[in-house]
Amino acid sequence: MKNNYISIGKILNFHGVQGEAKLGYSKNREDFLSQLKQVYVQSGDDYIPLEVARIRFTPKCGIIKFKGIDTLNDILEYKNKLLFVEETTARENLEEDEFLIDELVGLDVYDGDKKVGAVVGVSNNGASDLLSVKTHGDKVSLVPFVKAIVLSVDIKNRRIQINNIEGLLS
Questions:
Q1: What is the helix, strand, coil percentage profile of the chain, to 5?
Q2: Do 18 and 87 belong together in one domain?
Q3: Global model pTM greater than 0.70
Q4: From first to last of its 170 residues, what are the pLDDT tens digits of the chain?
Q5: Residue-number span of the structural domain to which 87 is assigned
Q6: For 133, which of 18, 24, 34, 117 could close a Cys bridge (C-beta 3.0–4.6 Å)?
Q7: Same domain, 29 and 105
Q8: φ, ψ for residue 7 (rounded to 5)?
Q9: Which CATH number goes with the domain that contains 149?
Q10: Which helix (H) or strand (E) holds 73?
């Protein structure tokens, strides 16, 4: 069985000369990243494992160090590469009300019993995640993924229940 991998961040650049790297990642994921012992970097069709030696966080990024990568030249080959974890690792670390983007895309969106559209994408505006919902008129509206608006997510039945406040879906 082929493993599925999910991106958890990107090596932005080197940090110092000891093989450390600056890591870009989604907000509020420090606890999850701190627990990782192994990540993967993609090389062609293969995913190469990298063992995490340590990770710390600055206000702007993470600083990550891998075992066996001890010089500036060693880390430079990974610059601008995405880091991945196995999908099972990502799922195990989701909070109760967190979902993977690929689980949400394609779900039907309902206001009461009325289907009002489908999720075509997920983005973030810094304050919250946003669902891109394509309505019947082929317009795409951004729906804040907050409890007051997104009432429930049912992955099994491929359904999201929203509180369609006035002006939300155009």
A1: 10, 45, 40
A2: yes
A3: no
A4: 456 888 888 999 999 999 999 998 877 788 888 989 999 998 888 899 999 999 999 988 999 999 999 999 999 999 999 898 888 887 777 776 677 777 888 899 999 999 999 998 887 766 678 888 998 888 888 888 888 888 988 888 989 999 988 888 86
A5: 5-92
A6: 117
A7: no
A8: -70, 135
A9: 2.30.30.240
A10: helix 72-76
